[in-house]
Design a protein that fits this description.
There is one protein chain. It is built from eight helices and four strands. About 60% of the residues lie in helices and about 15% in strands. The chain starts with a helix and ends with a helix. It folds into two domains: about 100 residues, N-terminal domain of the delta subunit of the F1F0-ATP synthase (Peroxidase, domain 1, Orthogonal Bundle), CATH 1.10.520; about 70 residues, no CATH class. With about 180 residues, it is α+β, with helices and mostly antiparallel strands. The longest helix has 17 residues. A four-stranded mixed beta sheet has the order 2-1-3-4. The chain is elongated.
Length: about 180
């Protein structure tokens, strides 16, 4: 993520926290990011360097008309500064800042087979105990893992899958003379 995206997100985060409106601001910006994700034409429009920033600001003003005032001002400023195409990245950074503020940790659990709710709860409880944070876990299934689990927390990846172990063994054997 670019430094500018972090700076914009941090500025919005601090303003929203100072105003006591962190939840509605984060929710409104997330809704806008979903719209950008679901409407590729909008995303392309905002990233098009041939479109003037003022035109992008006008479109975003209309889209964000019902949003919190901080979000409306934020998207207008971002568009005027020529960074409207980076709103999704700024939203991801804002989400990370809000999660840290609220002591939440987003974890992706990937397993070769569907976990039972009981097993998933046990894994989440172990992560909560180790991290001291509230864990929000998403679960996916990837049969190519063969067995085991892959945990992803932000940019940290812990690969305890059979496929991962086999790959590490293959690399070790290939480098051993």
């Amino acid at each position: 993520m670019a430094v500018a995206q972090r700076m914009y997100a941090r500025a919005l985060f601090q303003a929203a926290r100072d105003e006591g409106r962190l939840e509605p601001v984060a929710s409104d910006l997330a809704d806008l990011a979903v719209a950008l994700d679901e409407v590729p034409e909008l995303r392309s429009f905002l990233r098009n360097p041939e479109v003037e920033p003022a035109g992008k600001a006008e479109v975003l003003r209309e889209i964000a008309a019902g949003a919190d005032e901080l979000v409306r001002n934020f998207v207008h400023l971002v568009a005027e500064k020529g960074r409207a195409g980076e709103l999704a990245e700024m939203n991801r950074e804002l989400e990370a800042l809000v999660a840290r503020e609220q002591n939440r940790l987003a974890v992706e659990l990937t397993t070769a087979h569907e976990l039972s709710d009981e097993d998933a709860k046990a894994i989440v409880a172990a992560i909560e105990k180790a991290s001291g944070r509230t864990v929000e876990a998403t679960r996916t299934v990837d049969p190519d893992l063969i067995g085991g689990i892959v945990l992803k927390v932000g940019s940290f990846l812990a690969d305890g899958s059979v496929r991962g172990r086999l790959e590490r063994l293959r690399r070790e054997l290939a480098t051993t003379s």
